[in-house]
Amino acid sequence: xxxxxxxxxxxxxxxxxxxxxxxxxxxxxxxxxxxxxxxxxxxxxxxxxxxxxxxxxxxxxxxxxxxxxxxxxxxxxxxxxxxxxxxxxxxxxxxxxxxxxxxxxxxxxxxxxxxxxxxxxxxxxxxxxxxxxxxxxxxxxxxxxxxxxxxxxxxxxxxxxxxxxxxxxxxxxxxxxxxxxxxxxxxxxxxxxxxxxxxxxxxxxxxxxxxxxxxxxxxxxxxxxxxxxxxxxxx
Length: 235
Known about the structure:
By secondary structure, the protein is mostly helical.
């Protein structure tokens, strides 16, 4: 009866395990495809030559110089478009990378990987692509966008995925063990006294010595009685 009752539970647990595995694989594949698509879009946006701005663009190795230029020389909409565009370009890193990388230290790993990719793209822009230049402010804005997206969306999304991936399958119910027989409690010794177990040989020896002592006492009393009778007869 117990095995027949536990069989449906094992089948249900097995189906849930396969469904959980299929869901994990689907999420992982979607995240990978989205990351590949984003990489293609990022390469198209950042590595496309711009000959018209070749004379205007210069390399920037001082943090904050381009941001000040946006605030002073650009209109409000143009400045928001330039800075906001760099923030948006970094946001997919903060959403997709935490799912693809291990759970331990995922924020630090996401930050380091995002920074490495953006720096590599900026170096390629400055060395190969016409009309593009290395700008450290673009690296800062892209990384800030990745951190912002991680705090708002990526942290919760990756946490749910990793919890789902690490959730173990429920074990089938085991048959209950037979109840144990109760044993008599041992008598506790008085405080301050040590109780030592007496072996069987010692107990038998004490019984023998007790019997011999009682026989000797009876013999001694008999001798005393006879001596008292002899004295009374002589008188």
